[in-house]
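Please check this.
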Amino acid sequence: MPDRIREIPYNYTSFSDREIVIRLLGLRGWEIIEALRAKRVTGRSARMLLEVLGDMWVINRNPLIFDDLLENPKRRQALTDALRQRMNQIRDRAAGNEQVLELYELACGAVRNFQDEFDRIAKQRENITRRLKKHTRAGNIQFDGLARVSHVTDATDWRVEYPLVVLTPDTEAEMAALVDECIRCGLTIIPRGGGTGYTGGAVPLEKNTAVINTEKLEALGEIIERSLPGVDQAVPTVRAEAGVVTRRVSTLAEKHGLAFAVDPTSQDASTIGGNVSMNAGGKKAVLWGTTLDNLVSWRMVTPDARWIEVERLNHNLGKIHLQETVEFRVTRYQSDGKMPQGEPEILRFPGSSLRKEGLGKDVTDKFLGGLPGVQKEGCDGLITSAVFILHRMPEHVRTVCMEFYGHDLREAVLSIKETLDALDSNSDVLLSGLEHLDERYIKAVNYTPKSSRADTPKMVLIADIVSEKETAVESAAAQVAGLAAKRSAEAVIAATPEARRRLTVADRLLPHLDAGRPAHTLDLAPEERAGNRRAGSRVHGLQVDPVHGHQDQIHVRVGLTVGRGPLGNLGDLD
């Protein structure tokens, strides 16, 4: 296929020759190359042109080489002289061919643009540094190759453009001024935390991009009993800045006998700002909902460099969709982030509108009734800090690991619904987490069977059951194990923390397998679920695996496959 031809040398990226030529010479350049392909005699002129394009491409796509040439004008001049010499040889060999001469002119223009780019970038960097160092340390304004390479992609490994500059502010107070100056400099702004997202939200799509890395905003407050607006009792809360790693909040809560509800698989690397902007969930969401359900308030900088604070009113301290009317107060501040600007705005909408019936969290609903920040993936502002409620986990916990064997998994799938129904009907216990591992994920993590059978299961279901009554949780765990046994499963019950940790180790072995989590409902028949999986496997560039359940749904892992499909170029592996 012509669009997959790779003759350009030094191209270690996944871009095809066609994509590179169009970037450097335009579509007309590629049309001429295609027209001349069948007319080659010795192919010498074609090789020289491709070498010129390869030289420019490898330098454009390697920030380290680009910076080296930027700092060495003599070496840069020697390179451009060599490029022009090869172009002159192409002209001399054209023999009056109008197409060759037109291609020559296009290539000469590309060489001129290539040479001018160094001067333009040098002036642009100088201007950006001069403006931004008024608001942050000069060392926080990074143009070096390492910083740019480190921020070219996220967990998707999708690469389009390198950012022009990476900003690493020291404090939350610096954010608004930096955003304002970036706007004045004509830069596209991308907020970034741990870079664990699988949606491509942190991937620069334009050259003139500033990535604002929030990882230095790592202040984590003490746990405070707060009186919340509209709530009768004091509630344990914690404030965390955007760069705080999620696991740190969970660890702090556990030290005080509390639980932090936000626990995505990536919690050892994800940060609070990303959790808010993605509305992250996790195993505990089955008890207390996703990030949105557990927010007391959050601060953010809008795309027009304004401070706003959003505060939840009349918090129900549980799943937000169960509250009839949900209220938020939005307060806007002047540039100092302290002086209120105008009257606060009250947002009201039905709690049920924040979840989709039969699905739960709807990742396609970015608007969320106009609520700022949450689930917007950084598109409507930059989260700088947030306050969360913490919960008290019931004292007694049992983990039931159910391993299903055989080739017909319809029985195994039915056991998921049976487990949920049994626990929902028991008022003395709660289901705090339900994990589902299918055959491919079991193989990926090299899963070790926990039962007495030596062969590898086809499906694994892990349920965490909690209660204030030890007898109740023991009885419920035994009931769940019995239901699984009726479906020809082997069940193991763990009571101690260490034993329970061993049962759930598979999910922590490969946190990078946890991409976004589309979902299908638990009410689907086994045949429909199997169809969903087959359909998912047919999506070009996507691999779909059901993995994790909460809020009446089965979530699935979506892994991006390097290739080109509806999402475009998914694998510029520079």
